[in-house]
Predict the structure.
Amino acid sequence: MDAGLLVQMLIGALLGLSVYLPLYCGQLSLATPGFFAIGGTVAALLSTRVPAFAGTGATSPLPALLLEMALAGLLAGLLALAIGGTVLRLRGIYLAIATIALVEILRVFNLNLPFTGGALGIFGIPQPFDSTTGYAGFSLALLAVVCWLCARLEQLRLGRAMAAIRDDELAAASVGIDTARVKLTAFVLSALLAGLTGALAAHFLNSWNAKLGSFDASITTLAFVVFGGSRTWLGPVIGGLALTALPELLRPVGDLRLIVFGLVILLGPVLFPQGLITPQLLQRLGHGCSVVGQGFSGAGRRLRGRLSGVRRP
């Protein structure tokens, strides 16, 4: 597989997890591309305008990238914290519309601010890695860390509170869960992840403009979660990887690839209403693996028993 495509797939999986976090809490937020655009803009400006981050101009040090990602995630998280208390009072489709409006507001700001390059954007962003293989390794490590954190989150009190709010917010509030705080926490975590992903994407793409944080991106990132599944962290990862790779893999069919891609997105929720990956599927797979493991263990014990019963001359 081409390393460049792999990096795009890994970035898609990270964005899928960003959408998953508020959705796991029952909040249909489509603000991920807006926070993604903030992260990319921060990284592009710092690495091209600030000498300490720019390095030699063509290349930049890896610590500078890490600091840019931290600053981008922090700025996106602070914005989510500032507006989340108001926006998250809405529910369902009204929250989705409000977050789409946020994405469009950020896009228009990005287009009209003089220091962001307008419609042309910012070019010549320095590269912290010599090749796309370096980006692939770094993105894979980042995705592994985020997946581990999401898996841990599902087991923690915060994760259980998020799941309870998703299932029944009124019942969750009646047993003492601070639903407003939990929803705001999920929203901020989503923004933080999208922001640092945007910073990484800006360096990988070598340029950045407002088109990368648009309404179209909101629908695409939502499709990652709907197609992969929103009940466990593995669903958005699989959805992001598959739907990012699919258009490239379908290039041999020419103009039909967009039709096939659209049919996949259309038929996916019909055939798999809860997504490809569900907790029940993971339980069945885990049970099957345990049965196979027990079978191998029993066969090993029987073989050892037979060998121990053989008399040596």
User: Anything to note?
Assistant: The longest helix spans residues 279-309. The mean pLDDT is 86.
